[in-house]
Design a protein that fits this description.
This protein has three helices and four strands. It is α+β, with helices and mostly antiparallel strands and 126 residues long. The chain is globular and about 35 Å long.
């Protein structure tokens, strides 16, 4: 497999995984994106588990052309910078409400927000 490939094993595809990340995961946002992070398993050793990305684009973002552009930019940013993301987490990304798509802003903010969302995870038992 190519080092920067984006196979199905690196994608969040199930509705249950999306729901867990959105409801119970850590969240971080800036003027462009909102990123949710959720650990893959409860075990301590997540180093062998891949990072996974899920993208959700609301219809309020724009027409199909605009929404698909957002998806391409987010996926490409993740694909090329995946080594900068924490290992063993599912990340669900969506654009901020009323945000204007900008490739450079997505490139800068996605890894930074991923780390911030992981830090904001709620500890178990609280």
């Amino acid at each position: 497999m190519k080092p920067h490939a984006f196979p199905k094993s690196k994608r969040v595809v199930s509705g249950r995984s999306f729901t867990l990340a959105l409801r119970k995961g850590g969240c971080a946002a800036d003027g462009c994106l909102v990123v949710f992070a959720f650990p893959r398993r409860s075990g301590d050793d997540r180093s062998h588990q891949p990072r996974r990305l899920g993208v959700t684009i609301p219809k309020k973002t724009g027409n199909a052309v605009v929404r698909n552009r957002w998806k391409r930019w987010i996926r490409e940013s993740f694909r090329t910078q995946q080594a900068a993301f924490p290992v063993g987490f599912d990340f669900v990304v969506r654009p901020k409400k009323d945000a204007v798509g900008n490739w450079n802003a997505i490139q800068r903010s996605l890894p930074k927000l991923a780390h911030k969302a992981v830090r904001r995870l709620k500890p178990k038992g609280r």
